[in-house]
Write a structure and sequence with these properties.
Largest sheet of chain A: none
Strand order of the largest sheet of chain B: 3-4-5-6-9-8-7
Number of helices of chain A: 9
Number of strands of chain A: 0
Order of helices and strands of chain B: HHHEEHEEEEHEEE
Shape of chain A: elongated
Distance between the termini of chain A: 62 Å
Oligomer: heterodimer
Number of strands of chain B: 9
Amino acid sequence: MNDSYGFEQFVKAHATELLKSATLLAAGRQRGEELLQDTLTHLYPRWESVARADQPLAYVRRTMVNRLISHNRLPRNREISLAYLPERQSGHDPADAVVNRHALWQMLAELPERQRAAVVLRYFNDLPDNQIAEAIGCREVTVRSLVSRALAELRRREQMASLQEQAGS
Amino acid sequence: MMTTPNDLDGRLRAELIESVSDVHADMFTVNRLIETAKQEVPTRTSRRVWIAPMLAAAAVVAIVTVTTAVVATSNDADHPAPPLHSNVTAPVPTPTPDPTSTPVQAGNDVLGPDGLGALKLGMNRQQAMATGEVGEVSPTENQCDSYKLVGAPATVTDGYLSHSLGIALIVPPANVRTPEGIGIGSSIADVMRAYPGTVYNISTRQNLGPRVLVPGNPNAYYRFPDGGTGKVTRISIELKNQDCFD
């Protein structure tokens, strides 16, 4: 297949942006890269229609979410994602911020895919609910429910963690 | 700790951005993404080959997951587990010695069936260190340490030493092959010929590849990632119940 529809140019221009989204969606750097590769591999033979879409980037992101949700039927591994987390950049807070973030990551990794996707699309990609609904393939009301269930779960775990900490110290 | 529940929104936003602030697709990654996508135009045949082993792998992984109790809280209403029908159970392990090839004696250039030379799967840290084969050991963020093989080039991927299971993964230097003759550069077809009936997972994804039962060792898998190229790019042996990675 030739590259007249600009597949290469597109990937070169948006790889980092897509990789960030994929890393969050898949809750890990390695899995994120696999998800992005899987998505691009799937889309390459149909790149003509991607290129013709109003917003090719949104199209690719939507496909990524879709493949995450529909293909990721294997039980999720909850340890590996942490092992592949990107290192925190230096110059910030001391250790407990790192602990915090890893705790948040751990929690995100353990959410069901649809909930995690809803959280990432809303809080990282800043998408409005209607676009999140389109990406996940559900109704808007479901998006709100997915996000609120995810947040409730994150809150619950944070409270548990802080209770345990108090008990421990 | 400053974790008032109400600022969760803001913190989530900030932490999500922060946590991928150093994720960057360098030219190497970009090229790999492009080249792999172009190579892997799926044919009907490869699809069919791919799906059944994936189902089998799902079943196996599900069982392993349950038995090792890594199962998480089950608020997975919208993430149903794959159905475990009897027709997707894993292929029966058939350690079939290939009459045409004589297995090589286990040594430092043969991986398997139980390890690499003196270093065996399942050895605890002390035993492993005593072999003299294990060099630098570094902690990871999970319940496993990574280790380097003494004398192996820096390009060789680290192995894993599980805190509870001992040596859980061995990745040998490039010249090493399995007793069945599979090594770097073997084709996936070679793998399937060498381990008939035991190929669990042929993945089109990066870094994953067929994972097969090890003839003569019911507790181990070989893994032969091909990076999407159709040729094995790395070989390794791991404990079936290893708790270091997926």
